């Protein structure tokens, strides 16, 4: 076959139209689904290259609309007509054929970027995690992708950008958090995140053969995105950013977490303020209980609270709380009086105070100093 084929490809109908077709004209919807299935069988046979530019553009639009509608579909309620056996059969077949086409040609071959890739991940990662991760990071070799360069290009940065928009616009949902956890190889539950946030540890993390992908995804740029959204604990969506950071970090081994921290130029306690959300999580006892070896690999972040008592305190003068100098070195905006006050208010628990202020550096402004 050498001649170009002009194949009209209607976009995938939105929910309201599909619902109406299912309810009033199910036969029409069955035939339309059959047409889509035949289209993707045609593509699976290696015929994408013969489509005209117009047909390719229509295909790209179909894929974007299909992925969006299918990702969003589980939250919608169809009419009773949706139980039609032929409809269910053809919808399941189309879902399988769309995945197969993207697997054969790659994400970039079909002009899929950030938003559409995230929908693709959400739809398929549960049952096809290895292939999905490979397509996203560019390591999977698509058999029918004749552009070898695009086959090696990672889409991780594009996904990062989309997730940043979701978080900053308040549209990052629990479903998105679950999708992220599965993508990174976790079976972490919402309960686990709540427990970590409330100071409890809960070993339900399930590490599989996903560490290599997680190490690529949870990089310095991703940390920056979450730190920006967290905004020292005062961001509008700080809680969402923190949960995303927890899920991301739990996917990594202690060695990689140490490398990630050092990639932010953090090599000692006084530098933790450079990435407060990251550091507040990784030095917490609860996180150490979840990730084996964390305390050993991140020992350079643990302040030495011993021998911090000044030897030249004057007789009758109230001694400084232990760890005062360390606290001030970590938080430059913390005056000696405020450092002393916050330690005394927290039973001189230096690690607790450090965690508290890393999570919300803005608390420094609220510390009351007795006169």
List keywords for this structure.
mainly alpha; Cue3_CUE; CUE; UBA-like_sf; ubl conjugation pathway; ubiquitin binding
Shape: elongated
Helical fraction? 55-70%
Beta-strand content? under 5%
Low-pLDDT stretches: 201-206, 305-320
Give the radius of gyration. 26 Å
Given helix and strand content, the structural type is mainly alpha
Report the average pLDDT across residues.
Answer: 83
User: What is the CA–CA distance across the termini?
Assistant: 89 Å
| Elements, N to C (H/E) | HHHHHHHHHHHHHHHHHHHH
For the secondary structure, the number of strands is: 0
Overall tally of structural domains: 3
Q: Biggest β-sheet: count, sense, barrel?
A: none
Discrete helix count: 20
Domain CUE: 319-362
GO molecular function, one term: ubiquitin binding
Organism: Candida tenuis (strain ATCC 10573 / BCRC 21748 / CBS 615 / JCM 9827 / NBRC 10315 / NRRL Y-1498 / VKM Y-70) (Yeast)
Keywords: Ubl conjugation pathway
What this model shows, in words?
- With 371 residues, this protein is an all-alpha fold.
- The protein is 57% helix and 0% strand.
- It has helices at 15-24, 26-44, 53-73, 85-105, 114-124, 129-137, 148-151, 156-168, 174-183, 190-197, 211-217, 220-230, 238-250, 254-263, 276-282, 285-290, 294-297, 324-330, 336-345, 350-359.
- α1 packs across α2 (26-44), α5 packs antiparallel against α6 (129-137) and α5 crosses α8.
- The radius of gyration is 26 Å and the shape is elongated.
- It starts with 14 loop residues before the first helix and ends in a 12-residue tail after the last helix.
- Residues 201-206 and 305-320 have low confidence and may be disordered.
- Residues 319-362 form the CUE domain.
- This is CUE domain-containing protein.
């Amino acid at each position: 076959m050498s001649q170009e084929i002009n194949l009209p490809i209607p976009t995938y109908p939105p929910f309201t139209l599909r619902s109406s077709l299912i309810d009033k004209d199910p036969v029409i919807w069955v035939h339309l689904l059959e047409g889509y299935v035949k289209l993707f069988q045609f593509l699976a046979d290696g015929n994408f290259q013969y489509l005209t530019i117009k047909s390719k553009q229509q295909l790209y639009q179909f894929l974007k609309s299909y992925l969006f509608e299918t990702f969003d579909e589980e939250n919608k309620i169809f009419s009773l007509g949706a139980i039609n056996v032929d409809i269910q059969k053809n919808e399941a077949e189309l879902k399988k054929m769309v995945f197969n086409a993207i697997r054969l040609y790659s994400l970039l071959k079909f002009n899929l970027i950030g938003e559409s890739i995230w929908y693709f991940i959400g739809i398929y990662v549960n049952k096809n995690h290895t292939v999905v991760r490979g397509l996203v990071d560019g390591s999977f070799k698509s058999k029918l992708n004749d552009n070898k360069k695009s086959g090696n290009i990672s889409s991780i940065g594009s996904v990062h950008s989309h997730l940043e928009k979701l978080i900053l616009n308040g549209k990052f949902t629990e479903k998105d958090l679950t999708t992220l956890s599965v993508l990174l190889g976790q079976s972490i539950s919402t309960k686990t995140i709540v427990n970590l946030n409330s100071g409890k540890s809960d070993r339900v993390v399930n590490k599989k053969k996903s560490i290599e992908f997680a190490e690529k995804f949870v990089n310095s740029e991703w940390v920056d995105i979450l730190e920006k959204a967290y905004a020292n604990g005062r961001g509008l969506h700080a809680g969402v950013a923190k949960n995303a950071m927890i899920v991301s970090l739990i996917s990594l081994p202690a060695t990689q977490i140490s490398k990630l921290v050092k990639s932010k130029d953090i090599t000692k306690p006084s530098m933790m303020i450079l990435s407060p959300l990251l550091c507040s999580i990784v030095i917490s006892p609860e996180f150490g209980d979840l990730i084996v070896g964390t305390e050993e690999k991140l020992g350079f972040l643990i302040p030495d609270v011993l021998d911090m008592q000044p030897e030249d305190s004057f007789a009758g003068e109230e001694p400084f709380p232990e760890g005062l100098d360390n606290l001030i070195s970590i938080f430059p905006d913390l005056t000696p009086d405020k450092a002393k006050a916050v330690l005394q208010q927290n039973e001189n628990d230096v690690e607790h105070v450090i965690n508290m202020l890393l999570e919300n550096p803005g608390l420094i402004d609220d510390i009351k100093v007795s006169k």
